[in-house]
Amino acid sequence: MTMMTEESIRLQLVGMDESRASSTSATSDADAGGPWRWPFGGNSNNKTDLAKRETRAVLNLRAVVLLVLLLVAIGVTMLMWFTTSQAEQEDFETNFVGAASKLILAFDDIVEQKLNAIAGFGVSLTSYARDNNNDNNNETTWPFVTMNDFQQRADSCRALSDALFLNVVPKVAPDQLDQWQDYAFAHKGWVQQGQDYQRQIGWEHITKLPQQQHQELLQQTTQQQQRQQGPNNGTEVKFIGGVADKVWFYNETWDPAPDPMVTDSLYPLWQSSPLIVVPEMTVNFNIAHYPPYAPYIRQAMETGQITFGGILMAPPGNVSYPHLTTSFNAFILSYAAGKLVDYQGDPFSSVFVPVFDGYEHGRKQQKVVGAVFGVIQWAAYFDNVLPTNSPPVTVVLENSCEGPFTYQVSPSAVHFVGPGDSHDVRYNRLAQTASFRDLIHDDDKQRNSTTTTRINMPSLNEDLCSYSMTVYATQAFEDEYTSTLPIIITISVGAAFLFAVLLFLLYDRLVEQRQTLVMDTAEHTTAIVSSLFPAQIKDRLLEESRTSMLRSSSKTLSTSTITAGGGGGLIRVEKPLADLFLETTVMFADVSGFTSWSSVREPSQIFMLLEACYQEFDKIAMRRRIFKVETVGDCYVAAAGLPEPRHDHAVVMAKYSDNIIAKMGTLTKELEVLLGPDTAELGLRVGINSGPVTGGILRGERARFQLFGTTVNTASRIETSGLPGRIHCSARTAELLMQAGKGSWLQKRQEPINAKGLGCIETFWVQVQSSGSQSQALSICTSNSSASEDVVVPGFSDRIGRLIKWNTEILTSLLRAIVAQRVELEEAPGTTSWETTFSGIPLGEVREIVSLPDFDAEMASNFKNPDEVIIPQDVVAEIEHLVATIASMYRHNNPFHNFEHASHVLMSVNKTLARIIAPSAATSNDLMQDDSKVAEFLHDHTYGIAGDPLTRFACAFSALCHDVDHTGVSNAQLVIEGAPIADRYDCRSVAEQHSLVLSWAVLMRPDYASLRSLLFSTADDFHRFRQLVVNSVMATDIADAELKALRNDRWDRAFTSEVANSLKESPRDSTNRKATIVIEHIIQASDISHTMQHWHVYRKWNTKLFEELYVAYLNGRMEKDPAEFWFKGEIGFFDFYIIPLTKKLKDCGVFGVSSGEFLNYAGSNRAEWIEKGEACTAELVQLVREKYGEKKTNVTESLETATLEQASSHHDPADALESAWSDEQEDADDENLE
């Protein structure tokens, strides 16, 4: 129970005293649970009213101050935010307008420079034509002009103008067509010169094309040659040396055909840079017949002005893409880049700059004789137009023909966003727009311009398509000039005001908290003290603490508390806090069988039982107004008649005792499903006595209320001499019950009891006769528990039904671990396709080494908590049905080899496997820093047993089924009797093999297919499980001398260093060898675990085994009366089997600090058996003879001794007990003796 020190009580009372002196506010009635009552006098109502008035005034002033502070804070912060954010916004707008203006001016200069470069190239053509004219009139002979070194000159122009393609387009009159075609064919040498030039500068990309593209081009070339070699009837175009023999165009099937335009001027492509080799050479292609170019070339020729064509876009692709514009754009881009590149689908435009026949008298007086046709990529014209430190902007290029196109322009790159206007509409008000007409000056402005670069450039004509561009800001641009500074400043100012407000609130809160704290502390102190101590003791304790504080503050000491010490000093003696309670009844309740029960349980199970019981006892005590004194271990102490006197203390204590006994019986039955076998056998032994007691507080550390006196001691002695499930009372209590008219409840005990320190006393049994137990039903809700409310399994007794439920819960929890591991390994549930029927006998399947899974670090580091796994209800139902089926196969008339024994073995296996750890090493600093290292260390240290949940399930299943259909006699007797199963299994380990075969057949039934699918995900899992079960069940035959020798040899191979080193096997095989033999020894130890548990557990199962052997003896199925060898046989069994086995379990090193528990219990039981064994044997003999009688005849006396010796293989402890005594007499040099 919770304890409180004297010092802590005093500290709390100091707060309560200060509260009285200085508090200006009080806790409301609702908070305090009712009007506060001052513990030391005074008018609490007047003080509460005064505190309320003062509190109201303080609250009003507090609200006004807070409102003013908040209004000022909001106003100042909003002003700071508006001012700073507005300044940043203005800075952003100013910088954008400046950047946009610079962009437009830069674009103006760039466009004029680039167009001027093309116009200058046109002037050079005019000059070249005049210089090469043989006519003395200095007139050109257009269109018959071919410029030498055209590629070199055109490359220079393209570099200056960023034009991707340049072509001279002469104007050919209809009457000049034949003459032009002859001229073009005669002067085709420029094509070869251009190809040589391109080859010289490294333009050999055709040879570097991928194989597929190269084959396509070869096919196209072949088709051209075929066309060229055919007859020319005037309807076909021949390409010779890259030049068409006619002016041509693409017909409806996109094949070259002679141009039919004979009444209008033709504009054939002539010299071009670069030379186009795919899909055909473009020489003599009449662009006046090509819709994307036709209107613009005519406009340029007719007006003598620069004319921009429309926006040309095509699907993205490379030079071999099956689209004319795509392949053309990809080719000219590749030539400009110096490597093969793809066309990305961005806008291109054509530009037509007129060429005149002269330049002396102004362009308006000159004749337009041709044009320089160029193809430009708009992205190149936006490149490097922004200052290097400028953020990106959005540029919308728009013409009146195709609409807008959006670019994002930054100093280092130009990104085409897509067709349409995609700018951020938030920045519409900042847009900066300029038209090309404004950017490119007309002729009059050029003549007045001081810039010499504009003199040769014609004016711009936008009658067909007018161009403009608009510059918009972007979010990135705004982010460059806006920051979090306004927010920081605003937050800083707001934080300053908030800090002031918080500081004010904190101060106010501390004052209020101090006042509230002292009041609450007083209340809480009173509540805690009330729960720990009776009311009278509580009041005196509080009063003493107050007096002590007042005395300390005045620095005076009462002489009544001072005594002289032996050393001349003073010893302060406090007045005791104790009372004499004259009329009380004290009860001691102890859990009968708890010590032996707890010896085979885990600590968590022990506390689960005690907490469940004590909580219910407390509830009943509160209802009965019984004072709970304390609990000491499994002993519950309570009293009636204190601290509040009551005349019916004996009656109410008797009723209370009856209630908790009934509740104990209900709880243990329900908890047996969770806590395992024998839980329902626990009972409550109650002793009560009435009389005066002294109760008080023993000061010091962890002070508590205690009872003293003869009444208490007598109640304790009466309890220890009582019986489970019964109320044992003293004569004084019985007298009080009779005075209360409850004499019918009493039954005098026949013999008096001898109580230590009291002598012989008379006692009574109390049987409360009322309307029934008033205990309340226990409701235990445990997560992931498969236990249902109805623990009874149809067809079985309540006890067996509870054991079935418990076994089901154990197997289900082990299955959760298997599924959890499978989830981490990402393994799907298995199938049953690889399940096989095993031939031969199980004994022949025993293997020295069973391979367990290797350690998986990833799985260990991410291991899923098994408690979080939910097993489907149909699988849980299959497990319960499987357990019930196995239970039905046990012969329940066997006192020892029955389902209860199997459950006890399973409980021992589960507990033993749970203790396979290495705590001393696993808690080292190096390992604790890495969970995966801890897991790996434990895996290696425990030989992989702890890390494989399937192994644990196999061990549990083996424990559950290892004695199925056991006949109650030894293997040797079955051989002697010639039982059919003895012949079936070659007279070796008959019962064990029989149990295994039956149980395995049950597990393989179709009824349990869902269970097996969760158990086995692979064939390896299935066969490993089978092997583990075979080895485990066969290991329970501990009497077969040959198997025993083989098992000892296998142990030496695994754990004796000299033998193990000589095997020279791999570390993995060595580990698996150790794991296999350890598992077998765990099963063996669990099968006889009662010999290594508490003395009472040992005696219980020892009695059952003796009874079973005696029944076999009476039935003529055992040669000797077990009474003849039982005492010495047990000693031999301990010396030659149990203790050596426990030493092996300790030496294998996998059980950590628990490794010595088996050996300690075995040694303790052996010592106690030596002391009490003969008396115990006599009691056993008397017990079984009273129950079964004595044997009249021995039907096996005629059997020869040789036959007995030949069939001397034994089964389980029954065989070993009988053979151990014979071995001791016949072979004193047995190897186990050492």
Automatic annotation (TrEMBL):
Any one GO molecular function term: guanylate cyclase activity
Ranges of Low complexity composition bias in the record: 21-32, 214-229
CDD domains: CHD (cd07302)
Membrane-crossing residue ranges in chain numbering: 59-82
Key words, A-Z: Lyase, Membrane, Nucleotide-binding, Receptor, Transmembrane, Transmembrane helix
One cellular component (GO) term of this entry: plasma membrane
InterPro entries: A/G_cyclase, Cyclic_nucleotide_synthase, HD/PDEase_dom, Nucleotide_cyclase, PDEase_catalytic_dom, PDEase_catalytic_dom_sf
Coiled-coil stretches: none
SUPFAM superfamilies: HD-domain/PDEase-like, Nucleotide cyclase
Guanylate cyclase domain residues: 585-719
Superkingdom of the organism of origin: Eukaryota
Compositional bias per record (Acidic residues), positions renumbered to this chain: 1221-1234
Matching Gene3D superfamilies: 3'5'-cyclic nucleotide phosphodiesterase, catalytic domain (1.10.1300.10), Nucleotide cyclase (3.30.70.1230)
Domain PDEase, chain residue ranges per copy: 807-1039
Gene Ontology biological process terms, A to Z: intracellular signal transduction; receptor guanylyl cyclase signaling pathway
Main location: membrane
Disordered: annotated segments: 17-38, 214-233, 1199-1234
Subcellular location: Membrane
Protein name as annotated: Receptor-type guanylate cyclase gcy
Source species: Seminavis robusta
